Amino acid sequence: MVLKYDLLAALFSVCAVFARSVSVPDSKSNPDSDSDSLSGPSLASRAYMIKGTKMTDLTGILWPGDVVWCLDSSDNKEHELILDMAEKSWKMWRDVIGDESVLEFAPVHDKKPECSKYRGKIDMLEIKLNNEKKILSYNGYVKGDNRLDFDLSATYGARTPLVNFAHELGHVFGLLHTHQQRRAWPSLLNLNCQNLGDYDRLKERGVDVDKICEDLDQQAAEANKFWAEHILPDSNVQNDVIEDDKFDWDSIMLYDSYAFAKPGTVALVKADGSHIPVNVKPSKGDGEAIRTLYPGEESSDYDSD
Ligand SMILES: [Zn+2]
């Protein structure tokens, strides 16, 4: 596979980040979602996601209602493109989520969901296009600041914009990177540090990149803006429920081996050195994760009569 380095550079920002200065909205979600109880024994072994109503340094919370989206643009062509992409990627998610979930993803208007017309009236996911290969979203719901920055031309590996969009939707709904679960390291995953696209540049600058990888020190990677920050296990999220034999290798939230790698090389690999292929659609496990975060009416209702 031949990869273009300039396109890989897009990956620099293909990752969900979280601003620390947001306020926590009132909880309307189900009362037991504020803890590890979200992680049932079967699901927890496969998915990696937010903790429901609990804000962390890295994540927002569950969406309190439908994920209503708008496009921050008045351009008709852009609206057509995003309406099409949103519909197709939501269908991919629906296919694995099934009917037993309250989660809905819908435009604020059928034909031209323009943000400016609804801003301040409806709490929306604001999609904004750019030409800087910037693809960025939050993990979960962040009141008053839900946005998805997207570049329609950004592709990498064998992925397409549609796959990128579906991956970002996973973040928006509350899923984290499957490979960033701490307990997957080092038993399941390994990083070929020297193959990362910015390894040489940072090393020349005196950053001890080898030690960062060796220590799985995601915080140090982040501090040095080293791309390893998107691959190494999260330093500020605890997740101790994975079982080695149930890791979801099919997850759309799992990076393939070519992500962030120098052209012609692989970065993130399985512990035995084998490559991780590109997952082009949400997996069954991804669907199960969403059902757990957003269970259907029947499973979340409490009968008060
Ligand atoms: Zn991501």
From TrEMBL:
Residue numbers spanned by region Disordered: 280-305
Keywords: Signal
Keyword field contains Signal: yes
GO MF, one example: metallopeptidase activity
Lyase as UniProt keyword: no
Stored Gene3D superfamilies: Collagenase (Catalytic Domain) (3.40.390.10)
SUPFAM superfamilies in the record: Metalloproteases ('zincins'), catalytic domain
Superkingdom per UniProt: Eukaryota
Stated name of the protein: Uu.00g051220.m01.CDS01
Organism: Anthostomella pinea
